[in-house]
Amino acid sequence: MSTPGLFSSPAPRIFTLPAGRPFLAGLARQLAVETGLERDPAALSQAIVYVPNRRSARQLATELFEAAGAPGALLMPDIRALGDLDDPARVSGAEAALANLPPPISEARRLGALVNLVQAFHRKQGGELQISSALAAARELARLLDQSALSGGADWGRLEGLVRDSELSVHWQLSVEFLKIVTQAWPDWLAEEGAMDAASYREAAARALADHWFAHPPEGPVIIAGSTGSTPAGRILMRAALDLPEGVVVLPGLETDRPAGDWAAMAAAPSHAQHVFTQTLPALGLAPQDVTAWPETDPQPRLEAREKLIAEALSPADLTGDWRTRLAAMAGAEGAPGLTRRALDGLSVIEAPDEAEEARLAALILRETLETPGLTAALVTPDAGLARRVSALLRRWDIEVAPSSGTPVLQTASGSGLALILGWWSDPADPVAMAALLKYSALSPPADPGAFERHVLRGPKWWRGPGDLHDRLGARLDASDRPETVPADEKAAALAVAEWFARAAALCPPGPCSADEAVATLQALVKAFGASQAIWAGEEGHSVSETLASMAEMAAFAGDQRPGDWADLFCGLATDAAVAPQREGHPRLQIWGPLEARLQSADRLVLAGLNEGIWPRHPPADAYLPRHFRTRLGLPDPEERMGLAAHDFAQLASQSDVTCLYAARRDDEPAVASRWIWRLKTLVRGALGETAEAALAPAAQRDPRTWRRHLERPDRAFGQRAEPRPCPPLPARPKRLSVTRVDWLQRDPYAIYASEILGLKPLDPVGKPLDARERGTAIHAALERLETDGGPDTPEALLDRLEQEMSRAGYAPEDLAAERAVLARTARWYIDWRAARASQVRQSWFELRGRLELKIAGAPFRLTAKADRIDLMAGGELTILDFKTGAPKTDKQVAQGIEQQMPLQALIAREGGFESIGPAPVEALVYVSFRARHEIRELSEPPDKLADTARSGLERLISAYRQEDQPYLSAPRVQFVGFDYGYNRLARRAEWSAEVGDE
Q1: 14-100+201-298 placed in CATH 3.30.70.270
Q2: At residue 750, does pLDDT exceed 90?
């Protein structure tokens, strides 16, 4: 079938395609030439081609079709993915041998079994481990098992001896016992279940296939292309293919021109891009000089220079001491500067201020590519968040390009919806969980959820569960002490939503449940919430169902769990799952991860996320073994993963048109450029000196930073004042204020502007923690009931009222129990104080409203108040009392003119402004501090004098704000502002206060 050449050349038929060349296109073109595919559409029909993954397999089929050159039918070769060796259904040619192997265990089942073994170990140690923690430990053990399989099997028998001989023997003895899960318990479990680890199965399947090829050589060529040989299974098939009559191996980016000394240094540097080949070639019984350049490789001086520069930049540390000498020797007569400039033609490096700007620049490069007909571009980044940012930015131009790795399940509508339902099931009384669930658009609540959010969820939680909420809600909405009346339609809507939640809560098991019960409960809740179509439909629904199935399979070993554990387990499993892009993206743009980008090519590449810790990603710390233990046990060096990442980078950076992006800051912290970028810049600086920075920068007409400046430039400049200084027209300014709001006007005029003029009221946060406001309201209510409800006035009765009102405000029973002793002591003190002055008091009024009509600056003004308590004393004078749950106000604070609430109440009382009380002299202004450190504090200045001073200050204050040029500033005297009235964000205070200074 074949012509003399590729398949008939002398053994070993092992080749390499240099970095920077389109691997799959070059492979396809040469195969077409060698087999005469243009003339014979069936020329490759008997061939078997192995590539690393399914994406590469699909792309190779496309490249072969284009290489054939003629439209019409083409009988494709059998293109297989090396990654499918753990799937018996996808391994062809060795079915009989595979039938004798135990089946590979699924990842979910493996994790479940390991979780069970981890929990059993902890129970044996006298402890108990939550399933989320056990899952994390199981994942670490699974990673250790995979690494052992990659190394061909660790020598676990040496572990106890290593620990015994080390200085850490006592500390590590428990780790040795724990690792017996891997060394003893796991092999025993697999044997008992008659199963194999997926990694072991891949290796066994490769051996079975290799044996089959040896016994029954395939009729056509066998080609292993694009693999670096980093796995035992890959190396087994490579060795088997090289022994076949028409077997060919094609390696990606092997640097065959390296001297022997370099290979020794690379073998000792696991993080080097070529380190993997120092393991693969000896395993095949070959040396670098045995590898031949792929026949299709045409000379391309610019790319050859790029390949040399990148290779030199990534050289092992031992070889960087004489970088300049090596570069000069490599350049020859051209000289190091000439070689470097030729290599940098088409390669640029850009530092962005942060990852957001990095995404904008990447999106601009992709968008600009479309200005040239037929040109293709791809973003390659391991940063999934950056990939999603770029995808979102491209939608501004109606360009759909989804990351090829897909969307994480938890970020899909289906996955996030189910996670929200699970989160609510974990704590059905949690207002935040209820609010989050109501924001999920696919739910079908029986009424407008906005009313339920406003009147129930915002503010402190006062219910114990959904049923309790529904039972008590009606009375709370009708309560007379609410600050505003709830409209009938909003009350009905809130009650309907509360009943909806109560019915759903009734479907939940009362305690821990099995995996099957958990799945059944979730299905029932999804149906009850009316979200079945949104959660279970389409590819997203399929992925969610698969994740649930994995959870059930894994948790079959774990027994009954609490709802919160099921939520943690689902979210933990969902982090590893993704939904493939649902819509066809733009045909000329791609967003790839480094794995998806292997063997792929595009006219223009953007390599982004090139920060240390992102690309390359640092190997995670081993939870159980120090590095020197790993080496002596025969486990792979963690740095080898960085070597594979370096190989990916070298392959990509050597292509024709490449822009490298990294951020100066990531996650609001300083970031460091990737070691590869740092080395490249250092090497270029050594060759070009001061001109290095300009050589690495893109040309001005191709610089995305320039494009961004032009695109983002506004049509005209708008003046902007940092600090808001609103001056509303006089008719809009308030004509009435309460005594409390007079204090507001002095402390934070902007709060009065926003609340009284704009009519904006701050919403309480959902599930707001109880604070001094709720505590004060509850204590005021209890003290009022003591005087008005006709019940006993003993300390015990007051304590009961306090606990009832605080419970009504949302205090949990355990919180009240913790405070009971303090409340009881304070109640006894208050009753004693009240009794001691009872003979001096003729009559008392509580929560009494008052007002005073004034004329200020020629216009009417109404001052209002609500006094906690006013006592008519035996001599006919009034005492005004203000109950505080914190520290009482001082004479100094009142004298400063800021705390004017009590003096203004004295003014209203003196003028007869309180209901049911005529004009009367005020004898005393008293603060009653109802707290653990109880205190009675009477203002020392005569009330009449304080009232006169307060009136003068009020008239000056209101007169000032009846001037059109008087602005309502945000906290102009910040030293008198103890807290945010709720309007600082509206005033953008954090934005400008640092600039002008808070003095």
Answers
A1: no
A2: yes
